Amino acid sequence: MSNILDGKVTSNQIKEELSQEVAALKASGKRPPHLAAVLVGNDGASLTYVGSKVRSCEKIGFDSTLIRLEDTVTQVELLETINKLNNYATLDGFIVQLPLPKHIDEEVVLHAINPDKDVDGFHPTNFGKMALGMETFIPATPFGIMELLRRYKLDISGKHAVVIGRSHIVGRPMSILLSNKGNPGNATVTLTHSRTQNLAEITKAADIVVSALGVPNFVTADMIKHNAIIIDVGITRVPDENHPKGYVITGDVAYDDVKDKASFITPVPGGVGPMTIAMLLQNTMLAYKRNS
Question: Is residue 53 annotated as a catalytic residue, yes or no?
Fold first, then answer.
């Protein structure tokens, strides 16, 4: 049986550390960090995720602002909102929740965010700094995975890591961070994707597998070697008539199939997801310190 990389417990530890830091700031007469979220439309998953972010802010003492816009909002109107947030002096960071409606160009929107307030870490300036190993805002999900590895004291130096998926949000930054100098880091990384041939042969040779594909139960036990570290970034709502909500949250990894073969594994839910929110808060604290 593998060890669980418990993102829920670890994220709560991080939130408690941040909560103590905020309490000390307030005790010294300073304002708390302030995070805003822009939500366009009524996507169910986005509503849930943003709601969780707002509650997390309240729990640790951050100020939070939620800006809700109709899905009929124009790109120009959204850019005007972003410009106001860029110039809001006591707002330390903000995010624009993805996905956006099809009539809005996500790239244009993300590029419009002031890099100094881009606590999601998606702006090209921040992505470039991350690639160069400079201090910056690291995308929250890869940041959370690296923090899990660090807090569980998993040594990945010289190990072979395989990342499945090449998105700018998870896969590509993950491949960079795993190979960077530092601890955790110094892994030898193979970045795979939909055009990769003989994927199972590649994953079977891996000491670490990070799957960010979004295909439920894609990674099975016969695709990994014994004692591999398995990081499951996938989170898909799979219809289930027997569940009260009508669906279950399923990861990329066939958990029950893989858990006895892996040395460490993240569950879904309760693995990478909670860490993403915790590291968004961590990025906001970093922005606050730069802004103070």
Answer: yes
Known catalytic residue at 260 = no
- Annotation marks residue 155 as catalytic: no
For the stretch 82-134, pLDDT in tens is: 999 999 999 999 999 999 999 999 999 999 999 999 999 999 999 999 999 99
Residue 83: which CATH number?
3.40.50.10860
Domain residues for the domain of 50 are 30-114
Q: Please provide the DSSP assignment of the chain as one string.
A: -PEE--HHHHHHHHHHHHHHHHHHHHHTTPPPPEEEEEEES--HHHHHHHHHHHHHHHHHT-EEEEEEE-TT--HHHHHHHHHHHHT-TT--EEEEPSPPPTTS-HHHHHHHS-GGGBTT--SHHHHHHHHTT-S-PPPHHHHHHHHHHHHTT---TT-EEEEE---TTTHHHHHHHHHSSSSS---EEEEE-TT-SSHHHHHHT-SEEEE----TT-B-GGGS-TT-EEEE---EEEE-TTSTTSEEEE-SB-HHHHTTT-SEE--SSSSHHHHHHHHHHHHHHHHHHHH-
93 and 154 both lie in a single domain: no
Q: In this structure, are 146 and 270 located in the same domain?
A: yes
pTM for the full predicted model: 0.95
Q: Residues 97, 118, 207, 261: which is the catalytic one?
A: 97
